[in-house]
Structure formats: structure tokens, C-alpha cells
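Minimal example, chain plus iron/sulfur cluster.
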Amino acid sequence: MSPSKSNLKFKSIPDTNSNILEKIKWAEDIFRNQYFKGNLLDNEIKSLVSELDLAVNECLKVMKEKGVTSLCSGCGESSCCGEGIEDKFDAVTLLINLLLGVKLPERREIEGGCFFLKRDGCSLRVREVICLNYFCEEIYKRLEFQNLIAVQKTCGKEMDILFTLSERIKKKIFNLGWMKNESR
Ligand code: SF4
């Protein structure tokens, strides 16, 4: 068995309660593992990654056009992105960020802020539903209803693709683990 294959027993997906550094480590190990990389990235997953990339662009565009981005950046470091939100992250979402070229942070940059919050905003390309779905009172007050609906509709597409992609990746990882057990 190749060394990368024999390491698979260490690669079960950390559960949601695991520490964020553990989740990041898992995602980076999988991302760098040639066996996983070669077997994980089939055409269906590649195409979902591209679809997700486009959906993220659309979501960011509509957030900017409708004024959400400027309202959020107005809050700066005291935004809703508080410490602890990172605990809600699924390790596979971090792996998907790596697949989209994101460099995951090594440490928290802003005291009291989410682990992924940087001085210039969120360091992730793909965020969890909790980040995309949340609007503070100020946004509800200041955004016209139809603009809010437009943002929710567009970002809903990103969330749907993220869910499908994440499930595909989990299934693939499970199957790869099963293959490893069978080959013993
Ligand atoms: S992941 Fe990004 S958007 Fe979500 S809470 Fe953290 S910094 Fe904010």
C-alpha cells in the first residue's frame, strides 16, 4: 500500500464540535494528500466547484449592488462576525475553500472576532449558511424589502450548491475510506 493510502485511517472528518484548528488541519491534510486529490476530484465534483465559484461571485455582486457590503463594512471590526462563529463550521466547507484557492488563517487576527475575520473582511470565499443567512436589524431597517429578497434569492443558490458539493465530497471520502478497509 502506498504511504499516502496507509494514512487514510487518520482522515475521518472531524465532527462539528471539534476545535477549529483541528478542522483546518484535517482540511489541509486532505487537500495536500495526492491519493485523496487524485480520487476525490472527479468530474462531478470539479463541475460543482466551478458552479459554486460562479454562485459566490453572483452572491458577492448582488450584496454589493444592494448595499449589504457597505453596511457590513461600516461596522468594521465590531461586525456580527464574533468569536465562536467559526465553531459552527463544517470541516468540508474549509476543504472546499482550499479547492477554491483560499489560504486558511493560522491564527485569530481580531480579538473577539471570528477566527476567519481579517481587518479587510472575511478571509473565506465560501461561508456557512449561518454567515450568509444572517442579517442584522440595521440591514433589515435600511434595505428595501425587494433588495433583501434579491440578496436572499441569489445567495440561496450558493447555499444549495455548497450543500450538494459538501454531501458529494463526504460520500466520496466515506467511499475512499471503505476502499481502504477493503484493501487491507
Ligand atoms: S466566516 Fe466570515 S462571514 Fe462568517 S462569521 Fe467568520 S468572518 Fe464573518
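The pocket of iron/sulfur cluster is lined by residues 81, 85, 114, 116-117, 122, 124, 127, 131 (CB under 6 Å). The longest strand covers residues 117-118.
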